[in-house]
Amino acid sequence: MKTRALTRATALCDIIPDRATALSVMFKVAKLKQEELMPRTPAIDVSVRPMPREIAHRYGRLPEYRHIFEHIFKRPEVINDGIPLEEMAAEMDRHNIEQILVSGYDARKTRDLHVENDWVVGLTKAMPGRVIPGVGIDPTRDIMESLEEIDRCARDHGFRFLRMLPYAADLNPDDRRFYPIYAKCCELDMAVWLQVGHTAGLMPSEPGRPIHLDRIALDFPRLKIIGGHIGWPWETEMIAMALKHPNVYLSTCAHAPDHWPDSVVQFLKTRGKRKVIFGTNWPYIGYDRYFEKFDQLGLDEATERLFLRDNLLRVLGLPQES
Predict the structure, then answer these.
(1) 68-110 per-position pLDDT tens digit
(2) Sheet containing 131-136, strands listed edge to edge, beginning at the edge strand earlier in sequence
(3) Please, are residues 207 and 173 in contact by the beta-carbon 8 Å criterion?
(4) Beta 113-115 vs 105-107: how paired, if at all?
(5) N or C: which end of the chain has fewer CB within 10 A?
(6) φ and ψ at 133, to 5 degrees?
(7) What is the mean pLDDT of residues 194-221?
(8) Mutual orientation of helices 262-269 and 235-244 as an angle, nearest 10°?
(9) Cβ neighbours of residue 129 under 8 Å, at least 6 residues apart?
(10) What is the pLDDT of residues 235-262, one digit of tens each?
(11) Total Cβ atoms within 10 A of residue 217
């Protein structure tokens, strides 16, 4: 994409014969390009999976996740080498990402994958003020152990949300086995992030049908539900759920803006201004890639602020700046 900064650079370099001066101009232009990619609003990303080497290797052992990074997002280096936390923080800074939501992931019984909730606690200490922590729960685990773990994370470490991936167990999210977990989240005023849409990995996609959120929202009207991954290829179902239920929200993680269906863009700009939440699923999609064409959405300043931070803060019950 030829940005306004690059256009200015070309014009300047055409009239600057001195190499040193031209290099200085190009350095300044590179800085301008970076600023153009940065959103105006300090953003909060609803879905991030930090991938330092030790975590990347856990994912890399599993063919379904290797398929995602190698064949869907074309980033095999992430799963092979990992990304140091310092590089993640620098990328956040380049794009005005103020905070990220990070959760544990427990699929030991079905996928032999575990990112401990206590690892997330350690991350909050390593990146003070930058991480909003969430609980990862295996839906097939003993239910009383799950409820005790949610209580522990909320009470001892201030976790603000729960992330659950029903497809890992090939169960629909409205399966009654999940209902005690939803009830506990209502009790603690904790939001729930659920994957919707196809899985990308080599796992069943049926649990990601957004219509499965309908029964949950009806049975738990106080439960704040965030549907991740837009819901594609059933995005119209996801929009319908967000329109129907005051407690259901759509997030854009794992889809760069230039790949959003027109219906999602229209929803964000109109009736869904207060129902759509920013997310990337970093590092599946890096911030450089995500914000490359973000300005082409043409969001006004108020809508951009709702999308990038205020909608999520409201769902999490955190204060919004005036």
Answers:
(1) 999 999 999 999 999 999 999 999 999 999 999 999 998 887 7
(2) 43-45, 97-103, 131-136, 161-164, 191-195, 225-228, 248-251, 276-277
(3) yes
(4) antiparallel
(5) C
(6) -85, 150
(7) 92
(8) 20
(9) 99
(10) 999 999 999 999 999 999 999 999 999 9
(11) 19
